[in-house]
Amino acid sequence: MAADERDAKDRQLDGDRVDSDRPLTTDTGVKVGDTDNSLRAGARGPTLLEDFHAREKITHFDHERIPERVVHARGAGAYGHFRPYEGLSDVTAAHFLSGPDVVTPVFVRFSTVAGSRGSADTVRDVRGFATKFYTEEGNYDLVGNNIPVFFIQDGVKFPDFVHSVKPEPHNEIPQAQSAHDTLWDFVGLQPETMHMMMWLMSDRAIPRSYRMMQGFGVHTFRFVNAEGRGTFVKFHWKPMLGTHSLVWDEAQRIQGNDPDYNRRDLWDSIERGQFPEWELGVQLVAEEDEHKFDFDLLDATKIIPEEEVPVRPIGKLTLNRNPDNFFAETEQVAFHTANVVPGIDFTNDPLLQARNFSYLDTQLLRLGGSNFQQIPVNRPVAPVSNNQRDGFAQHRVHRGRTSYFGNSLGGGCPALGGGSGVYHHYTEKVEGDKVRVRSESFADHYSQATLFYNSLADWEREHLVEAFRFELGHCEELEVRQRVVANLNHVDHGLSVRVAEGIGVEPPEEEAGPNHGRSSPAVSQLSTTFGPVVGRKVAVLVADGVDEAAVDAFREPLVGAGAVVELLAATDGAVRTSEGGVVTVDRAYTTVSSVLYDAVVVPGGPESARTLAGDGGARHFVLEAYKHHKPVAAVGAGTDLLAPPLPDEVTSAAAGTARTELGVVVSPEAGEESVAEFTRLLGAHRYWDRPTASVPA
Ligand code: HDD
C-alpha cells in the first residue's frame, strides 16, 4: 500500500459516513421546517401528542446513552496500519504477519481502567492498549495493557478485583483513584497482586502520552504455523518516542487543568501529521522449553525477562487517522480476546480463558444484542458469510431461503472453507481430574516483584516509595496499611521499612527473606529511547520588550525538530519586541499551566524580563516547571526569572556565561550551543538529578 493510499477499512467506512449538509429531516426522511416550537393547542396551550417530530427528537435523546464499559470506560482511539518487517511463516500461519507487502488496517483504543467515561486521563492507573487488526482473514484483536503483568492469576477473581478498585459502593467515592481502603484491602489479602502493584506504583501508571507508552499482550499466546507446530509468544509494543512518564504531582494538577490531556495529545499529534508509531516485538519460546523457566508461562503475573528471551521486532504500527465520530467509533468498538485469526491461538492461562468468555458477554449488553459486529468500526474487511440471522438491529438483508448448514435448497451455501485461511484450533493433549485448585507452579508471588524493584533506577525507586506512601496514606484502616507493608517485606525489606515510615505503621523488624539480587534492566524506563522531541510542548514566556531574536533562535530549530512551541504572555494578543516588531501570543498563561508543557524558555529583553519577574503567575510557571524536573532555558535578562527561591547553583549560574546547571540552560544570548543543549535536555525528558524537595511550588 502506498503512503497516500486509503486502506480497505477507510474505504469501507465511506458507505457509512454521513455529512450534515442537507436540509433537516425526521428519522424517516421527512423535511422539518421548525424544530424550535412544538405543536400546541393554542399559542399558550398544551403540546399535542401528534407532534411526531418533537416526540421522535426527545425520545432519541432519552435513549442516547449506552452502558459504559465496566472497566476501561475512559478511552481514546485512532485508525492506522500495521506493516511487518519480514515474513514470520516459520512460526505462524497468520497472513497479516506473512511479509512487508501485507499492510493491515487497524483501530487502536487506549484507556484507563478504573474511572468512568468522563474521568480524567492522568490518574494513577493501568492503561489499556487494544488493537483491532482488520486482516484479510478476519479481525484479530490484541487486547493488552501498558504493564506486562496482571493483578490476578485466575479470571474468576476479576469481579472481586474490579469491585475493590472501583469507587466504594456505599458512597461512590473516590472516582478513578486507587488510593482507598477497598483496593488495598484486596491487595493485602491477595499476595498474587504484588508484582502488578509494583508496576502500578511505578511511573508506568502515569504516562506522559499514549505515544510514549509501551503495550503488552500480557498472556503467553500461541503462534501456530501451517504445519500445525506451536510456539509460545508474548507480544510487546515499543513506542518509537520512548517510554516516558509524568511526575505524580504534575499528573494530579493536569487532572484539573486538562482532564483530556492524553486524549488531546493523541488527537493533536495525528492532526499535526506527527503519526505515533510503535514497533511490535515478540518473545518466542519453543514448545519443548515450556518448563525451563522458574515460573509458569501460563501465569499472567509473570514476565519473561527480556534478558532471558530477547524481544524480536517484527513490524511497525502507525496511527494516522482520527475517527470521525467518538461515539460511533471509539465508544462502539468492541474488542474480544477470542477474535483470533489462523496462526494465533490461546494457551491454558486461566486468566485468558476467562477473558475469552467475558468480552463477548459484555458487548452483548453494552451494544444491545448479537449484531454488534455489523457496527461500522467492528465490521471486518474480510467477507462475512454465515447463517446468523435476525436479532436486534440486524442490518444485513440476507437473501435466499436457507439459513442452515447442510442444505440443498441454497446450493449448499455458504459452504465450508478449505485450504489456507481456515481456522484450525491447535491440537493439544489435555487430561486431568476436574479440580478447583491453583497449580503449585503459580505459587511464587514475590520473586518477580523483587526483580522489578531491583531493576529500577534510583529516581524510579524514589517515585515508587512516594507512590506507596501516597496510596496507603489514603487508607483509613491502619490494619490495611500494615498488611500491605507485611507483603512488601517479602519483596524487599528496605522498601517495606521506607513505606512503613511514611505512613505511620510499624516497620517490619526482620526481613521476610533475602533479596535475591537479580534484576532485569529492560523493565527500567532508563533503558528506553531518549532523544526525539516530536510533539513535546515548549512554553516561551514573553512580555512587551521581548528579545525577538532569542525567541526565534529557540523556536525555529525546535519546531524544525517537531516540537510544539507556544508563546505565552499575561494576556492573549501580541507583544512588542525589543527590536520594534510584534510577535503573536499563542495563549495567555493565565489560561494554561506549566504542567501542560514539557519545558520552558524565558528569552531576554530587559523590559520583558522585568515584567515577567514582577508577575507571580509567570514566576510560578517557571518554578513549577523546575519542580517537575523539566528543562528550563533563560537568556540574558530572562535569567531574572530564575532568581530565588530557586537554589543558588541555578541563580548564580545566571550571572556567568552560557552553562547548564541542574538541567537549566542559562546564557547571555541565545547561541546555537545553548539551543542545542536545551533540545538535548528536552529529548532526555526530565532532569531527575535535580533536587526539588525544597522548591515551594
Ligand atoms: Fe479486560 C476491557 C485489557 C483482564 C474483562 N480489558 C478491557 C480493555 C482492555 C483490557 C485494554 C478495553 C478494551 C477497549 O478499549 O474497548 N483485561 C485487559 C488485560 C487483562 C484483562 C490486558 C489481563 C491480562 N478483562 C480481564 C479479565 C476479565 C476482563 C480477567 C474478565 C474475566 N475487560 C473485560 C471486560 C471489558 C474489558 C469486562 C470491559 C469492556 C469490554 O471488555 O469490552 O469484558
Automatic annotation (TrEMBL):
It catalyses: 2 H2O2 = O2 + 2 H2O. Its EC number is 1.11.1.6. GO terms for molecular function: catalase activity; heme binding; metal ion binding. SUPFAM superfamilies: Class I glutamine amidotransferase-like, Heme-dependent catalase-like. Its cofactor is heme. Belongs to the catalase family. HPII subfamily. Decomposes hydrogen peroxide into water and oxygen; serves to protect cells from the toxic effects of hydrogen peroxide. GO terms for cellular component: cytosol. Keywords: Heme, Hydrogen peroxide, Iron, Metal-binding, Oxidoreductase, Peroxidase. Residues 25-36 have a biased composition (Low complexity). This is Catalase. The active site is at residues 72, 145. Residues 1-24 have a biased composition (Basic and acidic residues).
